[in-house]
Amino acid sequence: MGSLPENFDSSVMDAPHPLDPEDFRKQAHIMVDFIADYYQDVEKLPVRSEVEPGYLRHRLPDSAPYNPEPLENILEDVKSHIVPGITHWMSPNYFAYFPSSGSTAGFLGEMLSTGFNVVGFNWLSSPAATELESIVIDWIGKMLCLPKSFLFSGGGGGVLQGTTCEAILCTLAAARDRKLKKIGGDKIGQLVVYASDQTHCALQKAAQIAGIRPENFRAVPTTKSCNFGLSPAALRRAMEEDVAAGLVPLYACATIGTTSSTAVDPLEGLGRVTRDFGVWLHVDAAYAGSACICPEFRHFLDGVELADSYSMNAHKWFFTNLDCCCLWVKNPDALVQSLSTNPEYLRNKATESKMVVDYKDWQIALSRRFRALKLWMVLRSYGVSNLRNFLRSHVRMAKQFEGLVNADPRFEIVVPRTFAMVCFRLAPPTGSRWETDNGEELNKALLEAVNSTGLAYMTHAVVGGVYMIRFAAGGTLTEERHISAAWRLLQEQADALLGTCETKEVQALWEGW
Ligand SMILES: *Cc1c(COP(=O)(O)O)cnc(C)c1O
């Protein structure tokens, strides 16, 4: 390894063509079979990878191969070295974080987009990439019954970003520059950003990058009595105090479906506050936004007409493979003014005609993928009716799980379920040593016991000082039997844990059940 082999010339002669169509056909078929087998077998694999940090360095050579290697050999190594280091997000037994719900249509769309491999930074660089994106984003906007002002047809518009983090950063930059234009560019130190203590850390990262002073980031506390939603009155108070102190309220982020507990911030009340203070309101519906295509969930978006921007991750719970975040804005000019550049080498007639969208001015990067193909494939292959059915089936599974938790008196629901995630814990038995830290050690131990079996994977959050387990249903391959198996596993592990509980009275208590 490392030095030139003696047969240097002949190895170059034998080199495969990097894109021979017949070779591509053969190898791509092999790969599709490999992936189909993976989907077939993924439920048998340990969900959470159990490898140790650095495991792969010991298994792979320490420099790249000089000579070409056949696909079969590479796939063998994928099986023996890569798969063990994968946490299987596509497993039907995956209930951690939020799902990453890929689908056949999402996969095929991704495949097509990778096949065309276009770099659609402006309209001219690939007109279909831009135009399809504007069309599908309007389609989804209509499915969500977003106000017309968010649609291209109503003077607003949307864009596909990679992630919510980027969507939040872009809108924050737009809001910042619009405000600074009004109050003077030297006032950036006075700008204040608002959220709740449940808001995703994406906002804090965006504020750091956008040059908001760390001390001007307000994480307004939430309480259990408001189900951990952001209180409009508390937001108003925070803004009043800042104005009185000579600061300038800039941007607030409301969340539909917070990451810890899927809390919903009340948009109507918050929108009235932000309007009164001239603050940009962004709605982050990364996970739960998808559910709002079902009429029974749409009411969570009431008040979105008062927002300036709205985003949702199609790669979370909308059957679209990573990455794909939909962002709508009422005032695309604000985004463009903040993010556009116009170098000579990109000048063209279409841009100058102002008849086209150049998406490079709606995002951070220049280069951009043809993500719209994935969404278009998903929307057309399943239709609104099936997408609603898929979402509802996950909500139904979560409800079933919630019912199981409620039926076992050792467990309790910590925060009421809203979508397809159940927040629960094993209640620390009265008088037991588990009570001293309010059940934290107990539930940590339960979670680790469950996850280390490899049969299911769940994660935790702490809300209102309570350590709880999050059970997020929504894997594309998950069926009811996986839900009941996960519940049985939890019960077994709880039996084992509480069996070690030394307190006599507690033992008696359990026996009573
Ligand atoms: C997942 C999530 C995010 C982060 O999404 P990325 O696409 O990874 O940036 C932001 N907000 C909420 C509410 C989320 O659930």
* Topology order in helix (H) and strand (E) letters: HHHHHEHEHEHEHEEHEHHHEEHEEHH
Average pLDDT rating = 94
Highest-level CATH class of the largest domain: Alpha Beta
- The count of helical stretches stands at 16
Looking at the structure, the CATH topology of the largest domain is: Aspartate Aminotransferase, domain 2
Structural class of the helices, strands and pairings? alpha/beta
Unreliable spans are 501-513
Rg estimate, integer Å: 26 Å
- Estimate the global geometry from the Cα principal axes: globular
Distance between the termini: 66 Å
- What is the total tally of β strands? 11
Structural overview:
The chain has 513 residues and is α/β, with parallel strands linked by helices. The protein folds into 2 domains: 24-49 and 86-102 and 384-500, Aspartate Aminotransferase, domain 1 (Alpha-Beta Complex), CATH 3.90.1150; 119-369, Type I PLP-dependent aspartate aminotransferase-like (Major domain) (Aspartate Aminotransferase, domain 2, 3-Layer(aba) Sandwich). The chain is 42% helix and 12% strand. It is built from 16 helices and 11 strands. Strands 1-7-6-5-4-2-3 form a 7-stranded mixed beta sheet, with helices on both faces. The protein has a 4-stranded antiparallel beta sheet with strand order 8-9-11-10. Helix 4 (104-116) packs antiparallel against helix 13 (372-407). Mean pLDDT is 94; it is low at 501-513. Pyridoxal-5'-phosphate (PLP) binds next to helix 6.
